[in-house]
Amino acid sequence: MVDGAVRGVAGTVAVAVLTFAVAGCAGGPADKAVTSTPTTVAAASEPITRPSCETPVPAAWQSAIDKSVVDTGGVSNVPMAVGRRGEVAVARDNGDARDLVLIGVDKSVTDIYPVPEPELHQIGAVSMDDRWVVAGVAHAPRGANGVIPTLMRIDVVDRQGGPVRTVTESPPEDFESGGPTIDSVALFGGKVYWITRDTYAGNAGKIQSYDLNTGTVTDVASGEMRNVRTTAAGLAWDVGWDENTGPRAELKIPDALPPMVAGAVGTGRDQFTLVTDGNSYAWATTAQQGGPAISYWSPNGGLVRITGKVPAAADTELLPLFVVGPYVVVAKGRDDRDTSAAVIDARSGALVYLRPSVGGADGGTIGIGIGEAQKSPPTSVGVLRVDTLPPLTC
Questions:
Q1: How much helix, strand and coil, in percent to the nearest 5, is found in the chain?
Q2: In this structure, are strands 341-345 and 327-330 parallel, antiparallel, or unpaired?
Q3: Nearest alpha carbon to residue 221 among 202, 187, 196, 201
Q4: Residue 131: Cβ-neighbour burial (10 angstroms; 0-12, 13-18, 19+)
Q5: Sheet holding 234-242: strands in order across?
Q6: Cα–Cα distance between 132 and 159 in angstroms, integer?
Q7: Residue 300: alpha-carbon gap to chain centroid
Q8: Could you give the domains of the chain?
């Protein structure tokens, strides 16, 4: 669900509206997808095992959360992604206009993209790197009951000042009649990738790419597919579904990983949860890897395995996961605690549940949505800097 990344991991992705023979187009060769190249791996060292321990939110953390709020002028603010520089992309709604803004580390607010026909559409997905912001526009009329927000347009904002470019469009009348539907979008390696399903309810479709440097559109692959996304392992999408184990994902274009990470995460399902902030890595492990847990690696901290009742470690559900410095952040809380997110300190295993929602974490920043827990959308957005926070301990 994902950033100015190094080694080609080109987007922190927040996707709010996913419905759950390679040939090149004229003007460009086919993408070198669907044939994975192996990543050099090192034999996984024995991890340090730390049992998780839940602790209340420290007063210093709560104070930092309260002070993190940024006034954007909107009545609702949904953090969608966090960039490698620590900037937060926010879908803002002031009751009239809907748009996308960037909030800097210094809490400056920059308007970067107005949503066309805001009474009918909203921001549904965001991917970003140091230069590009990809905005997936969803059809979501105000006040409409029972309408599932559905991607209908993909635009690209050039942060260096170039014009906004439209990558693709799918008119609402197409998917409302059961026809072609944009399923999902991702940014990876200087290209925008998106899946268009042949029908609204079907799984068959095709994935295409748009080269941001040349403007070349390329057909990448076709078949059963949904939910294209970027992880630290590379570009992946789902190619099948199982009611017991969930979506069956495949890594289509691998990215380079530190040998110790590649050796520890392996090539199974765990790699599709792999995240990085460019230095630290984290992923959820499953029963096949010794039981549900959160794994963490950094050059200084080595390999750590956090066990116990940790979120994002279920065998059948891949929850949004982020890593920022020593903290692993999960965009899901506990319903019985009226919380929306969790943070684990890899140095101690300490775990706290937060009331604010989390839209992303990178570049020393956690982008949080503040309001009533479990309420959508949040009314305020916060830029929470982890370097101002004391370590979590139990």
A1: 10, 45, 45
A2: antiparallel
A3: 196
A4: middle
A5: 226-231, 234-242, 246-254
A6: 6
A7: 25
A8: 6-388 (2.130.10)
In sequence order, which ranges of the chain are alpha helices (DSSP H)?
A: 59-67, 172-176, 259-265
Q: One-letter amino acid identity for 301? A: G
Site of tokens 């990543």: 39
Rounded-to-integer distance, Cα 310 and Cα 292, Å = 8
CB 93 within 8 A of CB 130: no
For 215-228, give the DSSP string: --EEEEEEEE-EEE
The single-letter DSSP state of residue 146 is: S
Q: Tokens 């790197």, residue? A: 129
DSSP secondary structure of 265-313: HTTSGGGGG-EESSS-EEEEE-GGGTSSEEEEEETTTEEEEEESS-TT-
Could you report the per-residue pLDDT of 16-37, keeping only the tens digit for each? 343 333 333 333 333 443 333 3
The partner residues of 310 in beta bridges, in order of sequence, read: none
Rg of the chain, C-alpha, whole Å: 20
- For residues 149 and 140, the answer to whether their CB atoms sit within 8 Å is yes
CA-CA-CA-CA torsion sign (218, 220, 224, 229): negative
Question: Residue 364 and residue 358: Cα distance in Å, rounded?
Answer: 14
Residue 77 structure tokens: 């603010």
Dump pLDDT digits (tens) for 115-166: 999 999 999 999 999 999 999 999 999 988 888 999 999 999 999 999 999 9
Report the distance separating Cα 113 and Cα 37, nearest Å: 37
pLDDT at 306 (0 to 100): 95
Closest residue by Cα to residue 281 from 293, 292, 290, 273: 273
* Residue of 184, 192, 205, 177 lying closest to 132 (CA atoms): 192
With a cut of 50, which residues of the chain have pLDDT below it? 1-38
Has this prediction a pTM greater than 0.85? yes
For 113, the token pair is 């993209």
DSSP 22: -
231, 257 Cβ separation under 8 angstroms: no
Cα 70 from Cα 15, distance rounded (Å): 22
The single-letter DSSP state of residue 59 is H
